[in-house]
Design goal:
Elements (H helix, E strand, L loop, with lengths): L3 H13 L64 H8 L14 H14 L14 E2 L16 E2 L31 H4 L3 H7 L36 H12 L5 E2 L11 E3 L3 E3 L2 E2 L15 H13 L11 H4 L2 E2 L6 E2 L1 H12 L4 H7 L17 H10 L9 H7 L7 H16 L15 H9 L2 H9 L46 H12 L1 H36 L2 E6 L8 E8 L3 E5 L5 E6 L5 E7 L6 E5 L6 E4 L3 H17 L3 E7 L1 H7 L3 H17 L19 E4 L5 E3 L2 E3 L1 H8 L8 E2 H14 L6 H14 L7 E2 L1 H7 L4 H5 L2 E3 L23 E3 L2 E2 L27 H4 L17 H15 L1 H17 L12 H19 L6 H7 L13 H31 L3 H7 L15 H6 L2 H19 L2 H6 L1 H8 L2 H13 L8 H23 L2 E2 L1 E7 L3 E7 L11 E6 L8 E4 L8 E7 L3 H9 L14 E7 L11 E7 L4 H15 L8 E8 L6 H13 L5 E7 L8 H17 L10 E4 L4 H11 L5 E8 L1 H15 ...
Parallel strand pairs: 13-16, 32-33, 32-36, 33-34, 34-35, 36-37
Antiparallel strand pairs: 1-2, 3-6, 4-5, 7-8, 9-10, 9-15, 10-11, 11-12, 13-14, 14-15, 17-22, 18-19, 20-21, 23-24, 25-31, 26-27, 27-30, 28-29, 28-31
Helix pairs in contact: 2-9, 2-11, 3-6, 3-7, 6-9, 6-12, 6-13, 17-34, 17-39, 22-23, 22-42, 23-42, 29-31, 29-38, 31-34, 34-36, 34-37, 40-41, 43-44
Membrane topology: Multi-pass membrane protein
Catalytic activity: NADPH + O2 + H(+) = H2O2 + NADP(+); NADH + O2 + H(+) = H2O2 + NAD(+)
Keywords: Calcium, FAD, Flavoprotein, Hydrogen peroxide, Membrane, Metal-binding, NADP, Oxidoreductase, Peroxidase, Repeat, Signal, Thyroid hormones biosynthesis, Transmembrane, Transmembrane helix
């Protein structure tokens, strides 16, 4: 074969010089033959892809993978490739070829090989078979670190292979598998066009040789059934055999046989070019002209190559150009790894497959190989000859000529290439060449080509340039060795990130500062908005002060040491009262001044003389601080005139300010006095009748004793709570309780309950109680009279407790009332009421609805008579088995969370349908890619479908469809927040992943980057990746990503609860950056840097729906609405009544968005309508809690116009639906409103009463309205609405219960006295003492769970009860928790709808 092979190479040389077009002018007739394609397709008309670029290699022997599919064999199954290279291929250079083959033949052989096959292109996704260098390697690890790894990336494979053992992985050939000159002209039409000049048939690099006419001998016919594809075995055999022939240097000579000296940097001159120092050097000073290249070719023609054996010179074995950041690698070790990557068979398997004889032991491989080499190699394979690989085995058997295995492989390949090529030049059937031309081609040699191309004298070259025979011109000076040649440049490891660390860190820190900068901006905005708000508040205060100044004096009240003084207004009223008002003119305190009471006034004599102390008997003192002595003097004059007018004694004294403060009895000091009183009281119970109680006229403190259950027994006495109260307040000890003493007793309890009743109200209660008991003519009460007066409240008093701070004794918790025993259930009929299944109290002992210190009575009929037991028989429930119970629990769970389950399922289905990451992500080794790509799919989905949560018109419409049963539309805003929070967390993770990616990309070779970014990078041989700033600021995704982080930081900071409350306008404006956000998202996701654009898949449908919803709102937004009436109500509430637009249809419980033209036309705020759908106008009740609502109150406080009020107009958007509008879909509905959260229920209550008055058929038969408020003075406007509802509610549809939360809990004695007053008022006047309504007023917080339990008993036939709550999150959470607890039972199901503010 070796004799035939040079002839084949000569023929190839002739073929490569033939022009692609026939000779002649441009006007030559059209071609009469088929032109071969550049990409190699359609050579074989039966199998078009054979030999084409990109077609897979064709194996001669079955694949040998670790798993039989694609996983390469590695250590420890096979030896380390570097150790194997050192053991088998190491040796001295300078042994000449036995056949005198020239270096030019070796060079041309590599050229032929590159024309046939190329598998160096890395595969994607990147897979590595890195070469671990043994510690102490003299070239790669001289420092014995033991952690040196040479990267080796696996080659590209056919994706249709590597799927099963029957279809193992096959590599693809990146060039055509034909001898067609693709190494010169390229393997594609575009590559060929780049190489051609399109002028005179010349290449871009220079002129082509002229055509030569030769006569060729006859040739055998073409075999279309023969597969000419390149085999991986041929690639390995030819590359390795050529590598043993490469010398350490190359001679250069001219035509006169003068061998030149080579000038080397830092070494001087040398006789030849050093191979290891000449790789990929574009500007070699020794090859800077065409003449120098000719001299190099002449030198290679005269130089004899290395011996064809196992030895590979160090220039290839130790100093081959390395991949990536490594400047050097081991060519032999890399070739061994390439063979493992291709799944090459073992040496023995290949011999058997090709029908060759296999050696029986290691010494049979090659008798000319050094036995020590064989022993070292055998040791690496554990003396197992069957594990010897094809590459080292083929080299070990070669000496002078290729061994039998390599010979058979190469011969087989060239025969298939020639006989299976339809365009082979000797095939006369293809019509390419005539017989004369074929003969001419056969006679051409590479010498002829060199003479024609390089203009070399023919006498300077031997006839066969591949072999040098004795007598040939210009013999080489000597067989070249490493002596006299410059040393190879040692290994260097490039640091791609060198010099970028500081800039990279600064960039990351700057990006991380986006939220801080946004926080700073938000703080500045909030500061100015707060200052503006405070300015408005001061203006409001000044106006209030001016109003209060007409009837009072302004001052600061000193509450006590270590406490802050606060502004008050003092008014002297005509009814002998001194009234203290706060800044909003709400009554803080009323002091009765009646003769012969002495008024003691103490003035400060220093520190500006602006303080005074007003001593008040039986109450805490009043300490006032004025701005100046003149203002104090004005008040003293008014007080003196007041005392003279009402014949009150006034005693004025002076003392220092510090002494004045010490003399003052503050509210806290009075409370401590009362606690001391009770501690003494409990220590001396038998002698209570002997105590002088003038010093302790009231009952106070928080005493932890249950009076009803605790009686005091000593010396034969047994004290009950009424007896103790009677004895304590019999101030003169005469055994009678006068009306004034009774008033003092009641007043002492009311006083400690935050003065929730005025003295006038209390006096009315006392007179009513005396009149109701028939004692209106009595001035004093005996014990029997006192007990008779409180006969209806015995049960409350028995469960009354007192808590004294520090009163100790360990009695506390054992007397805590049982909550269940305090629940009085809702009356179902006049004759019966319900009770707990566990048994109830007798009617006389059943308390009002309790819980945490609460009284509760539901149903108006219960007001007139005590609740009685509900005696209707309950259906006996059959005991279920464990499986049935679990099944029932599961059913209840599904029923409770039906809509959440459906919504989550739909959300997940859409996500997994579109957002599943590509399968190749899991195969990559870059963690940052996995993180960034996975989160990218998530945020693309979330940022798209978050738009649906803001489609208010769509949600309002869908509430009326069947979807409302399965989708929790009430949670749209909460769902929006949760998606937003999840999206921002994923965005941060996405950014963190890209920070890792940028670093990895900045230090990764182009072979890896070309896999990840096939449309951006091409592995063209450059080793330097882009710097980090290119990724951040010079790519569209990078720059848009940085801007996205900035926009997100601004939006999320301003959307936080704190800044939203302080600057809603800032939140409103910054949230409109969503337009820029989505523009940047589209740009960021559409560039396709990492993967194909996919954001539009998620974004298109939600965006279209959102735009349509916005267009609906815009169609009605800009209609000016006139305000008919504006009223400023207490508690900072503004009532607006405005025109109802034509065609404006809404339901009770819905809400609108308004913009006040006087405050800006683009800032909209949501408010619930308080008007009913049947009313001709719309109304809102807006509480001033922020800058906008405060300014709104100011705008409507002073209308303009002559003769009639003209108010600023509004823009209106809505109505929008929420869960409260579904109240009519339930037979029984519970409305729970907290604070200003009662606004939707005002509309619902009015709507219900109106429909019932018309006799409309409604599913809703009963509504329980629970109003939770801090004080009875808040939201007085709602009391008017409730009063209207009570007057018009003829069918007893509404049951209203008001809870005042500022009062004591746990049935404290002071709260019990409020109960007594309230119940007496209800009994006598059928109205509440606190609100003036027929509705019952309770004290404390509502016990939702006992209440819902009682609802199930009163309405056993109802299967679903609607619960609608609106108010602070804490209250709605308590309602939700109670519903969830009750829904675990197999009874009525409570469906909760809520709205927070």
């Amino acid at each position: 074969m070796l004799r035939a092979r040079p002839e084949a190479l000569v023929l190839l040389g002739a073929l490569l010089t033939v022009p692609l077009e026939p000779a002649g002018s441009q006007n030559a007739p059209s071609l009469t033959w088929e032109v071969q394609r550049y990409d190699g397709w359609f050579n074989n008309l039966r199998h078009h892809q054979r030999g084409a670029a990109g077609y897979r290699l064709q194996r001669l022997v079955p694949a040998n993978y670790a798993d039989g599919v694609y996983q390469a064999l590695e250590e420890p199954l096979l030896p380390n490739p570097r150790r194997l290279s050192d053991a088998a291929m190491q040796g001295r250079a300078g042994l000449p070829s036995r056949q005198n083959r020239t270096v030019l033949g070796v060079f041309f052989g590599y050229h032929v090989l590159s024309d046939l096959v190329s598998v160096e292109r890395p595969g994607c996704p990147a897979e590595f078979l890195n070469i671990h260098i043994p510690p102490g390697d003299p070239v790669f690890d001289p420092n014995r670190s033991g952690d040196v790894v040479l990267p080796f990336q696996r080659s590209r494979w056919d994706p249709k292979t590597g799927l099963s053992p029957n279809n193992p992985r096959d590599l693809t050939n990146e060039v055509t598998g034909w001898l067609d000159g693709s190494a010169i002209y390229g393997s594609s039409h575009s590559w060929s066009d780049e190489l051609r000049s399109f002028s005179g048939g010349q290449l871009a690099s220079g002129p082509d040789p002229e055509p030569i006419s030769l006569v060729t001998p006859p040739w055998a016919e073409y075999d279309p059934f023969l597969d000419p594809s390149i085999s991986p075995e041929f690639l390995a055999a030819s590359e390795q055999f050529f590598s043993t022939m490469v010398p350490p240097g190359v001679y250069m000579r001219n035509a006169s046989c003068h061998f030149q000296n080579i000038v080397n940097k830092d070494f001087g001159s040398s006789p030849a070019l050093r191979v290891c120092n000449s790789y990929w050097i574009r500007e070699n000073p020794n090859l800077n002209s065409a003449q120098a290249v000719n001299e190099l070719l002449l030198g290679m023609a005269s130089q004899i190559s290395e011996l064809e054996d196992r030895i590979v010179v160090e220039d290839l074995r130790d100093y081959w150009p390395g991949p990536g950041k490594f400047s050097r690698t081991d060519y032999v070790a890399s070739s061994i790894q390439r063979g493992r990557d291709m799944g090459l068979p073992s040496y023995s398997q290949a011999l058997l497959a090709l029908g060759l004889e296999t050696p029986k032991n290691w010494s049979d491989l090659n008798p000319e190989v050094d036995p020590q080499v064989l022993e070292a190699t055998a040791a690496l394979y554990n003396q197992d000859l069957s594990r010897l690989e094809l590459l080292p085995g083929g080299l070990l058997e070669s000496h002078g000529d290729p061994g039998p295995l390599f010979t058979a492989i190469v011969l087989d390949q060239f025969v298939r290439l020639r006989d299976g090529d339809r365009y082979w030049f000797e095939n006369t059937r293809n019509g390419l060449f005539s017989k004369e031309e074929i003969a001419e081609i056969r006679n051409i040699t590479l010498k002829d080509v060199l003479v024609a191309v390089a203009n070399v004298d023919p006498s300077a070259l031997q006839s066969n340039v591949f072999i040098w025979h004795p007598g040939a011109p210009c013999p080489q000076p000597q067989q070249l060795t490493t002596e006299g040649l410059p040393p190879c440049v040692p290994l260097t490891v490039s640091d791609y990130f060198k010099g970028s660390g500081a800039g990279f860190g600064i960039t990351i820190v700057a990006i991380c500062c986006f939220p801080l900068v946004s926080l700073l901006i938000a703080w500045v905005v909030a500061h100015f908005r707060g200052r503006e708000r405070r300015k408005l508040q001061r203006k409001d205060k000044e106006s209030m002060k001016k109003e209060a100044a007409k009837d009072g004096v302004s001052a600061m009240e000193w509450p006590g040491p270590r406490e802050t003084s606060y502004p008050v207004t003092i008014q002297l009223l005509p009814d002998r009262c001194l009234q203290v008002l706060d800044r909003r003119l709400s009554v803080l305190r009323t002091i009765q001044l009646r003769p012969p009471q002495q008024v003691n006034l103490i003035l400060s004599s220093n520190r500006g003389r602006r303080t005074l102390l007003l001593k008040i008997p039986k109450e805490y003192d009043l300490v006032l601080l004025f701005n100046s002595e003149e203002e104090r003097g004005i008040f003293v004059q008014q007080l003196q005139g007041f005392c003279v007018r009402w014949t009150l004694g006034l005693d004025v004294a002076e003392m220092g300010e510090k002494e004045l403060f010490r003399k003052a009895v503050t509210k806290q000091q009075r409370a401590r006095i009362l606690e001391v009183f009770f501690r003494h009281l409990f220590a001396q119970v038998p002698w209570l009748c002997l105590l002088e109680t003038e010093t302790y006229p009231g009952v106070g403190g928080n005493l932890g004793w249950t009076w009803g259950e605790l009686s005091f027994c000593s010396m034969g006495w047994r004290w009950t709570a009424p007896q103790m109260m009677f004895t304590m307040y019999d101030l003169d000890g005469n055994g009678f309780l006068s009306k004034d003493e009774f008033f003092t007793m009641m007043r002492s309890f009311i006083e400690i309950s935050n003065n929730c009743l005025s003295k006038a109200q209390l006096a009315e209660v006392v007179e009513s109680m005396f009149r109701e008991s028939g004692f209106q003519d009595k001035r004093e009460l005996t014990w029997e009279d006192f007990h008779f007066m409180l006969r209806d409240h015995d049960s409350e008093l028995r469960r009354t407790q007192l808590c004294v701070k520090g009163g100790g004794g360990g009695v506390g918790d054992i007397f805590k009332p049982n909550i269940s025993s305090r629940v009085s259930f809702i009356t179902k009929t006049p004759g019966e009421c319900s009770c707990p299944r566990g048994g109830g109290l007798p009617t006389s002992e059943a308390p009002e609805l309790g819980g945490p210190g609460l009284k509760k009575r539901f149903g108006k009929k219960a007001v007139l008579s005590p609740p009685r037991l509900y005696t209707e028989a309950l259906q006996e429930k059959m005991q279920r088995g464990l499986l049935a119970q679990k099944l029932q629990q599961f059913k209840r769970f599904v029923e409770n969370y039906r809509r959440h389950i459906v919504c989550t399922t739909i959300f997940s289905a859409i996500y997994y349908a579109f957002a599943s990451p590509p399968t190749e992500i899991a195969q990559t080794t870059l963690v940052g890619i996995i993180l960034s790509r996975g989160t990218a799919a998530n945020v693309s989905f979330m940022y798209s479908y978050i738009l649906l949560t803001m489609c208010r018109n769509l949600i309002t419409f869908l509430r009326e469809t069947f979807l409302n049963r399965y989708v929790p539309f009430d949670a749209a805003v909460d769902f929006h927040r949760w998606i937003a929070m999840a999206a921002v967390v994923l965005s941060i993770l996405h950014s963190a992943g890209h920070v890792v990616n940028v670093y990895i990309f900045s230090v990764s070779p182009l072979s890896v980057l070309a896999c990840i970014f096939p449309h951006v990078f091409v592995n063209d041989g450059s080793k330097l990746p882009q710097k980090f700033y290119w990724w951040f600021f010079q790519t569209v995704p990078g720059m848009s990503g940085v801007l996205l982080l900035l926009v997100l930081a601004i939006m999320y900071v301003f959307a936080s609860h704190h800044f939203r409350r302080h600057s809603f306008r800032g939140f409103w404006l910054t949230h409109h950056l969503y337009v820029l956000l989505y523009v940047l998202l589209i740009i960021h996701g559409s560039f396709g840097l990492i993967q194909l654009p996919s954001f539009y898949i998620y974004f298109m449908v939600p965006a279209l729906i959102f735009v349509g919803d916005k267009l609906v709102s815009l169609s009605r937004k800009k209609v000016e609405i006139s305000v008919v009436k504006a009223e400023l109500l207490p508690s900072g509430v503004t009532h607006l009544q405005f025109q109802r637009p034509k065609g404006f249809e809404y339901k009770s419980g819905q809400w609108v968005r308004i913009a006040c033209l006087a405050l800006g036309t683009n800032e909209y705020h949501p408010f619930t309508l308080t008007s009913a759908p049947h009313e001709d106008t719309l109304s809102l009740h807006i509480r001033a809690v922020g800058p906008w609502t405060t300014r709104l109150r100011e705008v409507y406080s002073s209308p303009t116009g002559d003769g009639y009020a003209i108010y600023p107009k509004l823009y209106l958007d809505g109505p929008f639906g929420e869960g409260h509008q579904e109240w009519h879909k339930f037979e029984v509905s519970v409305l729970v409103g907290g604070g200003i959260g009662v606004t939707p229920f005002a509309s619902i209550l009015k709507d219900l009463v109106f429909k019932s008055s018309l006799g409309s058929q409604m599913l809703c038969k009963k509504i329980y309205f629970i109003w939770v408020t801090r004080t009875q003075r808040q939201f007085e406007w709602l009391a008017d609405i409730i009063r209207e509802v009570e007057e018009n509610d003829c069918q007893d549809l509404v049951s209203v219960h008001i809870y005042i939360t500022q009062l004591a809990e746990k049935f404290d004695l002071r709260t019990t006295m409020l109960y007594i007053c309230e119940r007496h008022f209800q009994k006598v006047l059928n109205r509440s003492l606190f609100t003036g309504l027929r509705s019952i007023t309770h004290f404390g917080r509502p016990p939702f769970e006992p209440f819902f339990n009682s609802l199930q008993e009163v309405h056993p036939e109802v299967r679903k009860i609607g619960v609608f709550s609106c108010g602070p999150p804490g209250m709605t959470k308590n309602v939700e928790k109670a519903c969830q607890l009750i829904n675990r039972q197999d009874q009525a199901h409570f469906v909760h709808h809520y709205e927070n503010f």
